[in-house]
Amino acid sequence: MSTEITPDQIRRYESELSERKDASVLERAVKKNGILATAQDDIANVNMTPIFSIDLDTGHVANQKQSGRCWMFAALNTMRHAMKDTFNLPGDFELSQNYTYFWDKFEKANYFYENVINTADKPLDDRKVAFLMETPQQDGGQWDMICAIIEKYGVVPQSAMPETFNSSASGQINSLLNLKLRKDAVEFRELVANKASRAEIDEMKDRKLQEVYRILSYSFGEPVTKFDFEYRDSNKEYHIDRDLTPKTFYDKYVNWDLSQYVSIINAPTDDKEYNKTYTVEMLGNVVGGREVKHLNVSMEDFKQMAIAQLQAGQSVWFGCDVGQSSDRKNGIMDTKVYAKDELFDVDFSMSKAERLDYGESLMTHAMVLTGVDLVDGKPTKWKVENSWGDKVGDKGYFVMSDAWMDEYCYQVVVNKNFMPENLQKAQAQEPKMLQPWDPMGALA
After folding, report:
1. C-alpha to C-alpha distance for 56 and 291, rounded to whole angstroms
2. Family, per the entry (predicted)?
C-alpha cells in the first residue's frame, strides 16, 4: 500500500535542517556556485599531474565538434598514431572521419530496415519494436562497428574527403534521417501485414536506400573512390602516391588485420560471467559484416592487457562513462574530483555492478589511452587522448586516475598478441546473446 508524505514528516525534515550549523553557509555556496563547483576538491589537480612513466607521442588532438562520432575518431586515431610512426607523417595528419561517417549512416539505414522487417509481425508496443523506433539511427557506435565499415569500404586521408557542416554538426542530418526511417518503417510494416513477398519488400528497400544515399551525398559529399595521397612528412620531404582507392590506401598505409583486435569489457554484474563472450541483439551497422562481440574479464586482466599494448608502443581504444566525476575544463577524471557526499552529507556510493544494473552508468564516450604511470609495476593514472579539440584539458589530453578506471571504464580494444593464452581461448567462444537494451550495447 502506498503512503503519502505527511505534514509531520515535513516539519521533522525542516527541524533537522535547521539544527545543522553549516546549513546556511552551504545553501548560499551551492545556490551561488552550483553543485560541482562547490563540491570540487583541488587535491585532484595535485594528484593528477600529467607525468607518466609510459607516454606515447601521438601528436595533434582531433575534434569531433558537435557530433557523436567519438568511437569513430578514437578508432581512426589509434590507426593514425601507428601511421605517424611508420611513415613519419606530420602531427596534424588525420584520417577522414567524414568518409567512414557516410558509410556508417548508409549501412545503419539498411540495418534498421532489416530489423523493422524482422519485427514487423510484433505490435508497436512490443519492447523491441519500441526500442527500434526510439532511435532508428544515431552517431554512436562501437569498435566492431567501425571495423565492419573499414573492412567493407576502407579508409581515406582527411584531405581526400574533408569535414562538412553536417559531419561536424550532426543535429540536422540525424533529425532528418530518423524522420525518414520512421516513415519508411510504416511502409515496411504495412507491406509485411499485407503478405508482400520478400522480392517486393527488397524492391521497396532498394528505393529507400537510394533516397538515403542521395540525402547523405548532399550532406557529406559523395564518397571518394580514387584519389592521390600527397603530403610532406615531418622532415618536410614531399611525397605523392597516385590513383589509390580506399581499400588500397588502407592496405598500404594502415595494414592492420582487424580480426586481431578484439573488444574486452569489464561488466561485474551477476548476469555476465568473467571469461565468457557476449553479443547484443539488434546492435550493429553492416548487415552481413562483423558482429559486436565482447569478452568479459576481471578489472585486473582488463588493465594488464591495456598496459601490455601501451608498453609495446601502441595506443588503446577504450570506452567509458565520461560524465562521471570528470572535470572537463582541467581534463581530470578522478573519483575524488568532487566531494558531493561530504557537501550534502549523503551517501551517493554505488558499486560498479549496481550502477550498470540500475541505469546510473553505461558507456557514453570512447577515447584513446596513450600513456600510463606505473609505480612498482602498478598503474596509478592514465594518459587519455580525447577528441574534443585542444581547448579542453592539457591541449586536449586528460588524466584519468586508476580508481576512476576501475569504476567507470567498461571497454578496451587490444590486439590478441597482448592477451594471455587462456583469454584468447575464452575470446574464441560463441557469444551469449544479450537483450538490445543491455548496458553493454550502449553506443559511445
Report:
1. 31
2. Belongs to the peptidase C1 family.
Q: Which three cell numbers stand for residue 124?
A: 508497436
Single out the residue of 438, 415, 144, 96 nearest to residue 294, CA to CA: 144
Catalytic (active-site) positions: 70, 365, 386
* Number of residues assigned to the chain: 444
pLDDT for 35-85, tens place per residue? 999 999 988 888 899 999 999 999 899 999 999 999 999 999 999 999 999
Dihedrals phi, psi of 201, to nearest 5 degrees: -65, -45
Distance CA 423, CA 270 (A): 20
pLDDT in tens, 203-255: 999 999 999 999 999 999 999 999 999 999 999 999 999 999 999 999 999 99
Q: Could you identify the residue written with the cell 508497436?
A: 124
User: How crowded is residue 397: how many other Cβ atoms within 10 Å of its Cβ?
Assistant: 21
Could you give the CA distance from residue 103 to residue 167 in angstroms, rounded to a whole number? 12
Cα–Cα distance measured from residue 163 to residue 157, given in angstroms and rounded to the nearest whole number: 11
Strand partners, 414: 262
Whole-structure pTM value: 0.96
